[in-house]
Design goal:
655 residues; alpha/beta; 6-stranded parallel sheet; 21 helices; 21 strands; 41% helix
Length: 655
């Protein structure tokens, strides 16, 4: 493919087109590349779809009647219509801007159209505004990203593209997961749509905003309550130098705020004074202004999550050390962490496995690796009166002594085959093997079934993206079957003893209870555990209260490693059961944190699980001994206080 595409003059019914005979070039491929690079950082799934998409042959690049490059869609009769159905898109965009009221709000628009109005609006946006484009047609998105360089606005978060068959559900989800965005107050009128269609779009957008507002309000409320327990306390006098840590969580999303909350808890445990602030998307300009507000509090250091590369480009105050928490480190991010971007006193904290990605010029004094950490200030055994108060507050009435925490719904495995008919046989066989022998499941089965499928020509996997997707699907499927198999055995052996909860990762929401089977998602009905589903839980005080309601927490999705959820359960005082795995004894495996039999219980088969559950339910003193040993191990070796102490030690040496 060439770097540019030819703009041809097409003989159309519009008289103004007749005089445009010059064959100018337009860099469609270069523009698309810039847009996809920007889109990949915020919506990799859509970027992948666009990268594998191409325009139909009847889309022809031409000059519209006002000279604007645009696509003409040609029909079989040789005539057709312009992209966006306007023959003078640039002039029409100017008229649109004159009609729109100038207000400081985020906006939604039904479809890209020809993109000229959207691009003109973006150029006039305030730093904190955004435009949400709801577009069902992938080809229309591709055509626009070939016409207009929107990479700057995509990178800053001021242009959000919602592509889905159910766009308003995705819009609700996006606003809920990114609560820093200013809520949409205006739905733009599209001239190519009827008044009824525009009114319906406006109503649907308002409903999506209202739904996300409820979730967003709860997210902020939960996290604010949790942070208020740490921030603002008067530090006690200790031999540690008094420091003020100013915090700016990156992107104002729940996952980063939870990381912030846990590290702040560690600093407070070290008697360090912390102040907390979060900035609004979509603008980095807002980051600068709120950073300047933080500096007025005269902090000794600034704590960031994932945003060292952004902050170092702005002169907040390079005399201050920046503590950057990097939960995951990609090679692209590592390449940006150059010595020039990092000050001599800056500190980066990242998982041990990510250290290898750092440039060689970054000194060891600027890095703090960590393996496993848990907020032992938040996750802890509750006193009887405190538990009673919180259980009433969160409507927790669980009387089951055993809790099974699932990171995924227990789905009917064959439900995944709807869009993957060519792989149905392979997936069915793989799933059946796990169902027949759940105790023998481990991740190596995934490769086994893919290799067998290729040898038998049951499937041709030429595209790595498809292969990765299928592996993820198979993994989820197998874990669901594995959970169902063990759960079924527990229910049969000890009826009414098990409560199943779905883990919502980093989405702090109200505790939910499904009272009737019809309230459950349709796919749950295929799971033998659906009648045991107690609700959905999330990170924070709700989860800690729920863990305090049970004596045993069971995890069936064994990977040979400790998960954050297992750490939280142990810190809360639960006796943790996890399925044994061949990699348990590796350097970074389960044994790195817990000693099986002394601090955690492993099981191999449904029968083994039931036998051990019965033993510990009838021997509560032994169960309490192991649970106490596990919590002591976490407090002494894996709490965020230890991470905070390492940071303070480096800061003290620098000072």
């Amino acid at each position: 493919m060439t770097a540019t595409s030819e703009i041809r003059t097409i003989d159309l019914i519009y008289p103004a087109d007749q005089g445009l005979r010059d064959n100018l070039q337009w860099p469609t491929n270069e523009i698309l590349k810039l847009n996809l690079e920007a889109l990949n950082s915020c919506n990799a799934q859509l970027a992948c779809l666009l990268d594998n998409c191409s325009l139909p042959e009847n889309y022809q690049l031409a000059r519209a009647s006002d000279g604007s490059p645009c696509y003409r869609i040609i029909n079989e009769q040789g005539s057709g219509y312009w992209l966006g159905k306007r023959s003078a898109p640039r002039l029409a965009a100017k008229t649109d801007l004159e009609r729109l009221e100038a207000n400081q709000c985020s906006m939604a628009i039904n479809g890209f159209g020809d993109g000229y109005t959207i691009k003109s609006l973006l150029a006039r946006l305030a730093a904190f505004q955004a435009i949400f484009v709801l577009e069902k047609d992938l080809v229309t998105i591709l055509a626009n990203l070939q016409l207009h360089d929107l990479s700057l606005y995509i990178n800053s978060g001021q242009l959000v593209i919602i592509h889905s068959d159910k766009p308003f559900e995705q819009l609700t989800r996006f606003l809920s997961e990114n609560p820093g965005y200013q809520l949409i107050e205006k739905a733009l009128f599209c001239h190519h749509l009827s008044e009824q269609e525009n009114n319906q779009f406006n109503l649907n957008t308002s409903a999506a905003v209202e739904a996300s507002l409820k979730s967003t309000t709860q997210i902020h409320q939960d996290l604010t309550e949790q942070l208020s327990k740490y921030v603002g306390k008067d530090p006690a006098k200790t031999d540690i130098q008094s420091l003020t840590i100013a915090n700016i969580p990156c992107g104002n999303n729940p996952a980063d705020q939870i990381i912030t909350r846990d590290l702040i808890a560690g600093f407070i445990a070290c008697q360090v004074n912390c102040c907390h602030n979060s900035f609004d998307k979509p603008s980095n300009a807002t980051l600068i202004s709120q950073g300047q507000a933080l500096l007025k509090q005269k902090p000794d250091a600034i704590l960031l999550v994932s945003s060292l590369r952004k902050m170092c480009k702005h002169p907040l105050n390079r005399n201050l050390p920046i503590i950057s928490v990097l939960p995951g480190l990609t090679e692209k991010l590592a390449a940006e962490l150059t010595p020039d971007a990092m000050g001599d006193r800056d500190i980066s904290i990242c998982p041990q496995k990510c250290i290898k990605h750092f440039p060689e010029k970054i000194t060891a004094s600027q890095l703090i690796p960590y393996q496993y950490m848990v907020n032992t200030e938040l996750y802890r055994p509750l006193a009887a009166d405190e538990y009673e108060s919180l259980s009433k507050q969160y409507n927790i009435s669980n009387s089951s002594p055993i809790i099974m925490l699932s990171e995924r719904y227990p789905l009917d495995p064959l439900a995944y085959n709807v869009m993957l008919h060519s792989y149905q046989n392979m997936l069915t066989q793989g799933c059946q093997a796990v169902a027949d022998d759940p105790a023998g499941y481990n991740s190596s089965l995934e490769s086994f079934y893919f290799d067998r499928a290729r040898k038998k020509s049951q499937a041709k996997i030429a595209d790595d993206a498809i292969k990765d997707s299928l592996q993820a699907i198979f993994s989820q499927m197998a874990e669901s079957v594995c959970q169902d198999s063990f759960g079924r055995a527990v229910l049969k052996h000890t009826p009414n003893s098990l409560a199943v909860y779905q883990w919502l990762n980093c989405q702090p929401e109200h505790y939910k209870t499904y009272n009737q089977p019809e309230d459950k998602p349709e796919n749950w009905l295929n799971s033998p555990l659906h009648n045991s589903l107690a609700g959905e839980i999330s990170d924070g005080q709700i989860l800690n209260t729920l863990l305090n309601s049970a004596r045993i927490a069971v995890f069936t999705s064994a990977r040979g490693k400790v998960t954050q959820l297992m750490l939280n359960a142990s810190a809360a005082g639960c006796l943790v059961f996890t399925k044994a795995h061949p990699q348990d004894n590796l350097a970074d495996g389960l044994s790195y944190v817990f000693t099986p039999g002394k601090e955690i219980i492993t099981f191999t088969s449904p029968q083994d699980l039931c036998r051990k559950i019965e033993f510990f339910l009838t021997n509560p003193a032994k169960a309490a001994e192991i649970a106490t040993a596990a919590r002591s191990k976490l407090i002494n070796n894996f709490s965020h206080k230890h991470l905070a102490e390492k940071i303070l030690h480096k800061l003290k040496l620098q000072a």
